[in-house]
Design brief:
- This protein is mainly beta.
- Helix content is 9%, strand content 44%.
- The chain has one domain: Jelly Rolls, CATH 2.60.120.200.
- The longest helix is centred in the N-terminal third of the chain and has 19 residues.
Length: 268
């Protein structure tokens, strides 16, 4: 009798717990690149961004981003390769690629997942991130920036997620940022994921959440993340953050391998 009562009580608690668990969001895939082809990155999904070369992208970066050049970005039926090379290009000592989905993949809210293996070495600054497509609230940082993953080579075991807004950004020394230790960034693939809704966004490595940014008010200086954004994949060299401890010129070429990019949005 005692065992029967205990089982009954346990069952009641289990049932009650099941009733109060929050319902998990149901996502559907709306956009993806599986990189299961050969040659240039799919021009229906990606644009080679070179617009900031003239001003070193505002970060004193040491690379020149090229356009439609297989040496800097190509697909081999398995992975996208973004390659930073030590070579004189334009007025820079390095070449690389910066691919953007702007006007080919733009989203308001959703789950964005990129599986990648990162390049390594002092002076490398690789990133998976998002910028606004329409800049409705003004130039950077007023329209926002979402950093899903940044890695600088002099911190080889760490990735960082962050938010930039008019109210919170690194020029004011109050940028919202958090890092996580990951021991095998350069030897294994990891999933870098953003979950973004109307009140918050959350950033994960694999299944571990390591950053979140919550809406404080409707003021776009604090929450500009109610407009569509697009994806950016790039490997920079040097820059204000990447070159804090200099650039090791002996490490090149360096490659970021991307297994896939998948974007999901809530059903209905």
């Amino acid at each position: 009798m005692k065992n029967t009562v205990m089982i009954l009580v346990a069952g009641i608690f289990f049932f009650a717990a099941c009733q109060i668990l929050p319902k998990q969001p149901e996502y559907q895939l709306v956009w993806a690149d599986e990189f299961d082809y050969k040659g240039m990155p799919d021009s229906m999904k990606w644009t080679w961004d070179t617009a900031g070369n003239a001003w070193s992208w505002g970060n004193n970066e040491a690379q020149h981003y090229t356009s439609n050049r297989l040496e800097n970005a190509f697909v081999d039926s398995q992975f996208l390769h973004i390659v930073a090379i030590k070579e004189k290009t334009a007025n820079k000592e390095y070449s690389s690629a910066r691919l953007v989905s702007r006007e080919k993949g733009d989203w308001l809210y959703g789950k964005m997942e990129v599986r990648a293996k990162l390049p390594k070495g002092r002076g490398i600054w690789s990133a998976i991130w998002m910028l606004p497509t329409d800049w409705e609230y003004g130039d950077w940082p007023h329209s926002g920036e979402i950093d899903i993953m940044e890695n600088v080579g002099y911190l080889p075991d760490s990735v960082f997620g962050s938010a930039h807004t008019g109210a919170y950004n690194h020029t004011k020394h109050n940028q919202k940022i958090s890092g996580i230790f990951v021991k095998d960034l350069y030897s294994d693939f990891h999933n870098f994921t953003l979950e973004w809704d109307s009140t918050e966004y959350r950033i994960f490595v694999d299944t571990t959440q390591y950053f979140s940014f919550r809406k404080e008010s409707d003021d776009p200086e604090k929450w500009p993340f109610n407009r569509r954004f697009h994806m950016i994949l790039n490997v920079a060299v040097g820059g204000n953050w990447g070159a804090v401890q200099g650039i090791d010129s002996t490490i090149f070429p360096q490659v970021m391998l991307v297994d896939y990019v998948r974007v999901y949005q809530l059903k209905n």
